[in-house]
Description:
Blueprint: H1 8-14, H2 16-35, H3 41-65, E1 70-72, E2 77-79, H4 81-99, H5 110-129, H6 133-151, H7 158-189, H8 194-202, H9 208-224, H10 233-240, H11 243-250, H12 252-268, H13 274-300, H14 305-326, H15 329-360, H16 371-374, H17 376-390, H18 396-410, H19 415-444, H20 458-476, H21 479-482
Antiparallel strand pairs: 1-2
Transmembrane segments: 12-35, 47-65, 77-101, 113-130, 136-155, 167-186, 206-233, 245-272, 278-301, 308-329, 335-356, 377-396, 416-437, 458-485
Membrane topology: Multi-pass membrane protein
Catalytic activity: a quinone + NADH + 5 H(+)(in) = a quinol + NAD(+) + 4 H(+)(out)
Amino acid sequence: MNTFAVNYGNLFSITIPETILEVVSLLVLVVDLGFLRKSTQPARMTAACVLGVIGSVLAGLWLLTHSGTASFAGDALVLNSLVAAAQIGILLLTALVLLLSFQAEFSRNPGEYVAIVLLATTGMMLVAAARDLLVIFVALELLSLSLYVLAAFAKSSALSSEAALKYYLFGGMSAALMLFGFSYLYGLTGTTNLNGIAVSLASQGLSPLVVVAMVLVAAGLGFKVAAVPFHLWAPDTYQGAPAPVAALIASGSKVASFAVLVAVTGSLIPAASASRGATWIVLLVWMAGASILLGNLAALAQTSVRRLLAYSAIAHAGYMLLGIAANTPQSGAAVFYYALTYALTTVGAFGVIAVVERNMGSDRFDAFAGLSRRNPLLAASMLIFLLSLAGIPPLVGFWAKFNLFAAVLRAPGVGAWGLGMVIFALAASAVSLYYYLQVLKRVYVVPAMTDEPMAVSALEQLVLLVIALLVALLGIFPSALSGWIPLG
Length: 488
């Protein structure tokens, strides 16, 4: 087994952003329960969210101003330019979710809500930086346990309780499968470090235990990204969880999960073992194809915008799995670009859903009828978000798909499967445009049930307009983000 010197100074320097979030989460609890306990609910939520946003900004500023590379315990945790980019993206998404939570009324415990959001973000950031099986598992559990609690935070909603229970049960099963697969990898290689696993597996032939380990790891990580056939939790969780929580699950959680999936793929496909690499690629490609097919077809039958976005997320996970299967630095960077832009757009879409639900009491298609006349700015924002998710130029969603599919086609060794899967994905994207347009039809064509303007706070409107503007500008100037994401 590998041995290495432990430098706790490096550990502290790597985890300063996470430490900032943890300290702020404790501060939020102290302020909310110690000083604002008798204040009104809106005042408590505002104070908690402001502190949460400040913590996210401070952690992001530290990452922006401290470039360089560091590692701890033989690369168990790493901090490099690619990890920093993923972590900054996660912090931005968390800040946006908290800004959209100011008007939230689903909980009487705003301090606990914001504190758990920050702890979930800490888990996401550790997942993105982890390069050791044990650290990956612990970080994923911190993330998952936080999200289970957040999904159930609307205590008066039966849907929220049901969503959290299903999320927890499926999550516990997937964690067991993943840990079982990790134990096989450790038994086969004698190390839990991803670099060590890659070196050890490169000298071994393909054995039944290696195949079993890959299948179990694929099952565990497939749950985290909501890939078929490990997707069953997603529609109910997206529908039942409070809107800001659903936005966090659909955004930051996906960025972190795809970051660790890229890292694990790099250790399981060393160049020296084409047969084993082909086995892992086959698993990814089959999961990608099934996710693209089922996600897009099931979305056609939905009448709830939340469930539509859930099945859409399954399809988008399939697109990103194709990039991971290509396993090149360019495809890895394209996956990060796709994950970040998809997450940003999804946060905006859930922000609009939250406003509509608060005014109409429902997220069904009919609740969006006449939105363009009741609130033109909100309707325009939803138009940008959905068309970007469909991949319509010049929005950023188009460039995300273009870069991803181009990276897959340029990857050496993809052969016929690469071309065939890209053609299939393009056809599925055309299908996705249909169900996104069904929502926009209600927004712009179907007459409103009432002419009363849809109430939205100035802060919510501003945040949604900023997100929509980012989605549009990143589409017009795609290199502004793609040039910032380094190659893995």
